[in-house]
Amino acid sequence: MSLLDPLRFAAALGVAIFHQMFWSWAWTSIGVPGFERTVAADVLYPSAAAFTWFGWVGVEIFFVISGFVIANSASQSSPGAFLLGRALRLYPAVWVCATATLLVLLLFGSGPASELILPYVHAMLMVPKGVTGQWLDEVYWTLAAETAFYGLVFCAMLTRRITLRHLAFGLTIYSAIFNAAALLVMSCTTPSDLPYLVILMFRVPCAAFLLSHGCFFALGIWLFISANRELTALEKIALAVTCVSGAAEIYFFASFFLTSIPAIADQSALAPIMVWSAAVLLIALAARRNRHAADTASPEAPAYLRTLGLITYPLYLTHNVIGAAIIRALVEAGLDPTSALWIALALLILVCWFICAKIEPAVRRALTEVLAHFGTLPQRQAAPRRSVLARGLRLPRPVAVKVSVAAS
């Protein structure tokens, strides 16, 4: 499904514009800045607030796509091959981007270097920072949710009993209950009340519990299953529940934003829901088309689309801190803030292309050689053509969905 690469890129670009054109100055209303404050220019984009404040919903789109492509990967892998594939996909970019972020903070930031050590270690290992800690870059919180989901899929594969359907049903129910409770709490309290803050905590600091976002990964799995066969009546109900639960999570966070940030108090919480719904609808239509065309050969995605997908990951990891530093340098050189923003994003895209085309592959090869030297690579010939996780898809052959390497 070549649609996933440009959709991921668009979501990453939306998140980048949100951070640079809105969150870079609007965070003062909430008071939860990250290290990017030490390198950012003192610029405001209030006239763009109505179009940029909901760019964070790109994260929810990421999670749906992740559920889809991870289901595809796991359904065709052994547990060892799946785990290795995830590590080789995620760690090289994190090591490169986290190190670059650290260098930017050390060279251009105003805070003490000692504050960066533990966040850097957490970023390099891709482990949650804890409730009282701080991320090297705030965008890294999503990796905690992603790795938790990967771990859940890996454990399911190890059991040889839990299928994609079981996993999707479990996440659907688990997250739907929490998001329903979140809406109830929101309706009875205000953002300054403790119950409201506790519920909100599970979106970012405790993202690894998947309470808020489990529904998005489940939705991705349901869409993947629907790309291979018609969903049963019960599965369609579960699909609808994940959609409602996802919309509830987005509504909850959007309402918190609108209540806490005066600059967007007149905006509607429906805006991010509509953007997310449009992305989900596109994936669903592509999945249905894939199922109807299962017996015909699908053309390979154009190279430029695959490149966009490869750029997405390092762009997401670098746009906040490093992007803020580039914007400040351009503003101090005399450019107006808007021109500085777009030039910074263009430069970042070029840098991220170089990372994904040259640096990441080199790091990945080195890591593969190290693992092979110690004999920890899984045997390719031992991997089944289709994982037991794919049972229940009732496929006459291995999973038909075509997903580019960039997305998986």
Description of the molecule:
The protein is an all-alpha fold and 408 residues long. It has 14 helices and no strands. α3 packs across α9 (214-226). The longest helix has 37 residues, at 337-373. The chain starts with a helix and ends in a 35-residue tail after the last helix. Mean pLDDT is 89; it is low at 395-408.
Concise account of the structure shown:
This protein has 408 residues and is mostly helical. Helices cover 65% and strands 0% of the residues. The C terminus is likely disordered.
| Secondary-structure element pattern, one letter each | HHHHHHHHHHHHHH
State the end-to-end distance: 11 Å
Helix residue percentage: 55-70%
The parts where pLDDT drops under 50 for at least 5 residues are 395-408
The number of helical elements comes to 14
